[in-house]
Fold:
Amino acid sequence: MGVRVRVPTPLRRFTAGVDEVPADGASIKAVIEDLERRHPGMRERLLDEKGDIRRFVNIYLNGDDVRFLDALNSKVKDGDDISIVPAIAGGR
Amino acid sequence: MATTSQSFPRLPADARKSGAATSRPGVEIAPLARAQSVLDLVGNTPLLEIKRLTPGLIPAGVRIFAKLEGFNPGGSVKDRPAKNMLETGIAEGKLKPGKVILESTSGNTGIALAMLGVALGYPVELVMASNVSRERKKIIEAFGAKIHYSDPQEGSDGAILMCREMLEKNPERYFKPDQYNNEANSLAHFNTTGPEIWRQTRGEITHFIAAIGTGGTVMGTGRFLKTKNRNVQVIAVEPDDPMHGLEGLKHMASSIVPGIYHENQLDDKIPVSTEDAYEMVYRLAETEGLLVGQSSGAAMVAAIKVANSIRAGTIVTVFCDFGDKYLSTNLWIGWQEWRLKRKK
Structure:
């Protein structure tokens, strides 16, 4: 079953252009590791060298910003919706 | 029309000598003439030498100046193209009473159009991805403009496409300045930003560096400067990855390329990481007393890189806006940590 992850335009080069992909994991961190296995290159865009969520990346779990939950340790259950959203819109 | 700096009243020589114009001898900042409208206040922004941050970071023979576009009445460089696109639209009869100004924007152009729409008496509707900063939305709403939100997942390209659809459905209702494809955008910089920088550096500029959103600033200003001295190097700054946090900037290779952006007219293009740009914003605040937006941080990072590739020269870059519009954004995540690290 797992979770569904919505992928923003700048990361779709790793998902063959697909805007929503399945993933597994019991926490946000585990989901990101699974995304990396399925779509190599994703983790580096989401996490910095220390393993924290990059400052300009927002991750929403069922609509809530995980920074206001338990960040990477936020618990994930089957059927949850995860959205990755760049903190900005680009262009002018 | 904007008043040109040449028409500014000059202070008497003795007043300049005594430092009456400013507290620093030898510095002349001419006061603005009385204006009739915010339209008159667009342009003629100050040029500030970045001196406190740079010692030890750049060669002694290189000077870096920043054009402080936050001094425009709408708070950003985008006042210039917005004004020129609207005035050109009126002159060509495309923007006339009854029309609504429509544009896709991630913020600063929206603010500029909303403000100038009030001044000119036209309603304004804007399409923005819903993840642009809260302050920008509030400012635009304060000017009475209407915002249509596009999917944040789709970024600024999503806003562009939604705006196109709205226009196709109702072409008679709207006037779309089309900042990405309207040469009046880059012409605004050819006619104002370029000449101002040439005058302010007394023709000594050797390198012009600007971050790219639509490309209007770097294209128009660069073209003007090359008419004065073809050896001036024109350099663009862009995010180093399509996934970035530099609000207002475009990673060209992965975006809908604006029609006014002509990469073959650039001498170079410098990629900058979001982290480096954010930290530069913090450093500019602490060392220069200058709180700017993240695109200015990116421009400064690039200016230092260029400075280190030469032995002597005068670099001018553009600080697109001030930082007050970004206080609620992710720009400030990690700032405390950065500060503590610096104090150690």
The longest strand of chain B covers residues 61-68. The first helix of chain B runs from residue 13 to 17. The beta strands of chain B are 47-49, 61-68, 100-104, 124-129, 146-150, 174-175, 207-211, 233-239, 268-272, 312-319. The radius of gyration of chain B is 20 Å.
